[in-house]
Amino acid sequence: MLAGLSDFQQGKNAYTLHLNMAQETMQLFQERNLADIAAVEQCLATGVDEDFKKPKNIAEQLVRLLDDEAVGPSERLRLILLYLCYRGGLLAGDIKKLLAHSQLPPQDGEAIYNLELLGARVEKPLKDPKPPHQPLFPQKLPQQPQEEDVSISRFETNVKLMLQEQIKGTLDNTIFPYTRPYLEDESTPHDQVAQSSLRSAKPTWARTRPVAGDPRQRIIVFIAGGATYSEARGCYEISQQTNKDVFLASSHMLTPGLYLRQIRDLSVDRRRLDLPSDRPKPQAPAHLFERDPSPKPKPPAPPITGMASMNLNNGSEAIKRKPTNETSSATTSETPPPSSGKLAKKEKEKSKEKKKRGFFK
């Protein structure tokens, strides 16, 4: 009976779909050895291991992953780029050894050196006096180790850390300056509100928690050049933790494959990239700028008025004369009576015709 219900069938189909998706995801996770890749990436990105200590034997783990056949080419290139940023540059010989272990094509080697165009250092001398780069937002590391599911997602983006500093009011104004002059006095706290009387203030003792319909503070974050999904997740987590509306805006969303392709394109000839700014400006169709043809001369009007004033009388035309004066009425000219000689000729012709008719009868 339960199998015949529509709601039960829909729930069963949805449950089966989720199980299939989970199984396929776990299969890909194991086939591509993503657990070991994620562990090394977290150490390179954060600079500490699962116990929040300086990672050990990170180079050996990297080489082992580069030699693993289950690791794809994009993952190998990404690991090398992370290792370069972690070490602040490598010797030229070490870079060649990593490329030999990874067996990457030559264009991927160009992508590694294209990091210099983004401000990163690829090669460094044997004795480098330059101090290591300090993070933009230094963090306090916790003392207790975290669980395994959290250990592969320890890295926090700078967008999330920036939002935390902004909400606390400790964001550095020299790095993130205001677009408008800051008018509020810094000596007065943000939460202090001047009130003339206690009766004028609304009672807040009865409100234990905020109502869902109350307006919340909005924070709009715009990232030029593309945002990542981890940054979007950080904005969502800050919104949930602080009960604020955080909006993330960007030109597009970046994926690892798209980011690597853009790094490769940094050394490509600009004419081959077909950038929108280099394309010819769109133009309106040519027919919109053509002039209208000159109007044809009008043909002369037909003599309608003259034809209307014509009369036919016994096969002869008699044209009415126009009145000489506006007050005088129009008069038509009468034809003179025919003469007597003409009448005699007509009678003779009629008599001849009668005789001919009688003869033929």
TrEMBL record:
Residues 136-145, 325-334 have a biased composition (Low complexity). GO terms for biological process: vesicle-mediated transport. It holds the Pfam family Sec1. InterPro entries: Sec1-like, Sec1-like_dom2, Sec1-like_sf. It comes from the Eukaryota. Residues 125-145, 273-361 are annotated as: Disordered. Belongs to the STXBP/unc-18/SEC1 family. This is Sec1 family protein. It comes from Trichophyton soudanense CBS 452.61. The lineage of its organism: Eukaryota, Fungi, Dikarya, Ascomycota, Pezizomycotina.
